[in-house]
Amino acid sequence: MKNKEILIIDSTLRDGSHAVHHQLTVKQVADYSMAAEKTGIKILVVGHGNGLGASSLHLGQSAVGDTEMLTTAKKYLKSTKLSAFLIPGFGTIKDNLKPALDAGITALMVASHCTEANVTRQHIEFAVKNNLETYGILMMSHMISASELLTQAKLMESYGVNGVILMDSAGAYLTSDVRRKISTLVSGLKIGVGFHAHNNLGLAIANSVTAVENGATILDTTSRGFGAGAGNCQMEVVVAVLEKMGYQTNLDLYRLMDISEEIVSHFMTHSQEINKMTLSSGLAGVFSGFAPHAQKAAEKYGVDVRDIFMELGKRSIVAGQEDAIIDVAMNLKQKKSSSEENFQIESLT
Amino acid sequence: MKKPSKQKTKKSKKIPVGIIGTGNIGTDLLLKIGRSKVLECKMFAGVRADSEGIKRAIEMGIPTSIESIEVFKKNKGLVDIVFDATSASAHKIHAPILKKLGIFTIDLTPAKIGRMCVPQINLQSCMNIDNVNMITCGGQATIPIIAEILKVHPKTKYVEVVSSISSKSAGMATRDNIDEYTQTTAESIREFSGIKSAKAIIILNPAEPPILMNNTIYALIEKPDLKKLKQGINRVVSEIKKYVPGYEIILGPIHENNRLVVMMRVRGRGDFLPEYAGNLDIINAAAIVTAEEYAKKKLRH
Q1: Per-residue model confidence as pLDDT tens digits over B268-291
Q2: What is the ipTM of this complex?
Q3: Subunit contact B160:A89, Cβ cutoff 8 A
Q4: Which residue from A243, A274, A314, B206 could staple onto B167, CB 3.0 to 4.6 Å apart?
């Protein structure tokens, strides 16, 4: 088992986009891509945190558009494959995927909420037909059981993906969850299985390693853990741990450490840590990308951000429903001030 | 197929209609037509004999067929109006056939072959053509409000809509056509409001109990005239409520982070799917009101 190479997918320029409110610059994309190529990274995912076509008022607009980000990265990549990320319902084939192909992508991640895999068929089939190395991603995968995940993963397998990745969008997995879900997928699928961790409960590395120990061959990670919420599985750390354990990644570890230190540390506009916000979102099982929106709403409406997260968790809000945050915050505020007779929604503007 | 008696047809002051597609949309249409004073369903056609919809139609005594479009080819003059509730790719095949048969066609797929119709905006201009497209549920729910926003603020450069619908209300055709759905909604917003740049986002929400259809409109407007917007939007809502009683504004218009935000919710009438399926209800209610207008005109002549 240990002879098998672990495929490390680099999502620094995709998930990291969340951490800087989608304000990555052309220079940052260029600098990072140039460096990533030299580390031996096989697949570099680039774009808005929510993928192609997701730059929006709803989620936050990118400083640099999808196409420009992709063409910039492409200039510096030779053996590293350039990948985009797409959630059906956000990006479309005509407006987004075709331009991404023209920009030079050779791989694609197609993601859906974990229960909705059948919405990915059109986009996966389009990608496969265009010879892209294609992965299916099941987001918020903490929300359903191992057997339900297998059913969904099998759909993606039938559409032609090279592998299926379980995304712990909320950073809510315990290692026991990883063990159960990854081993179920590994025994039930013919294709590769992967894991994408978030660090809300401080378990990103442990969960990723557990995934590999249970048969996963793909880890989706970011340099320095740069990403949404409490951050991702830190690439250079997990590569070091895997090497120590005897697994192969065929990556240049020293170079990975160097990019983290010399390049990505400068991308970070704030220290990425497990704080009350990210910890409570992990506990509530709420998408990490909600953190900045929740914080803004908490400040604006004068309510506790932890209450917002717990309420979002109760409502089983899924990624993309950022609008619900305003609703929740206003409701919490309304509860607080229900004694004020003349309270009106308009008065909050 | 079971033939209705000639006598009954003669007496009836209703216009005969047919439905192709026996899924969620088609079956809900069937139930809505049952309430109509001017429409009568004379054929409910699909491809699956065991579909829930076909069973319902048989119980109701409606003629059914599993020959889909073929049944209309074989029975010329059976219906004056056909609702196509199949899929975008199927409608591309059906449209020319129905046109040749001289049947007024109301397309509920995102095929976008005929003129796009939002009853609150352009019902009358859709009466003298052969194929009318009902766009998408998100389009029906948001275009009237966006058009109103553009009337108050004509210089608005960018608008986007986010439609969240419950997973349970999204049938296989919606899922198979999610790309066309997203694309068509955005393009129809541009066409109706005249705005240059528009984006549509659709989110399927698996939460239990299922959520009501929720739509959020964001528009980039620096200094919105909230009073005027509110007045206009209230008027539009009251017009939509005439054919979609469960349509309501739940937030706004408010201005925050330099964006105008309006949120609306559609509670369905609970005909075939429960009331959470407001998405189904709004596109079907729009289709029915369009068919009824056509039928009334025809009955007057």
Answers
A1: 988 888 888 888 899 999 999 999
A2: 0.85
A3: no
A4: B206
| One domain, residues A132 and A244 | yes
Q: Nearest by CB to B175, which of A57, A119, A321?
A: A119
CATH of B137-276, one of 3.40.50.2000, 3.90.180.10, 3.30.750.24, 3.30.360.10: 3.30.360.10
Q: Work out the number of other CB atoms within 10 angstroms of the CB of residue B191.
A: 15
The distance of Cα B34 from the centroid of its chain, to the nearest Å, equals 17
Tokens found for residue A199:
């660090």
* Distance between start and end Cα atoms, chain A: 59
Instruction: Tell me, yes or no, whether A213 and A326 share the same domain.
Output: no
- Find out whether A89 and A122 touch, Cβ atoms under 8 Å: no
The single-letter DSSP state of residue A91 is B
Contacts of A189 (CB under 8 A, 6+ apart): A150, A153, A154, A157, A164
Select from B176, B202, B256 the Cβ nearest to the Cβ of A89.
B202
Rounded to whole angstroms, the Cα distance separating A7 from A346 reads 52
The whole domain housing A304 covers 276-338
In Å, what is the CA distance from B242 to each residue of A160, B30, B124, B142, B269? 47, 20, 16, 16, 13
Q: Which of A18, A113, A142, A196 is catalytic?
A: A18
Looking at CATH, the fold of the domain delimited by B6-135+281-300 is given as Rossmann fold (3.40.50)
Mutate to test the interface with B, among A119, A149, A333, A344 (most CBs of B within 10 A): A119
Quick: pLDDT tens for A137-188.
999 999 999 999 999 999 999 999 999 999 998 899 999 999 999 999 999 9
Q: How far apart are CA B109 and CA B130, in angstroms?
A: 16
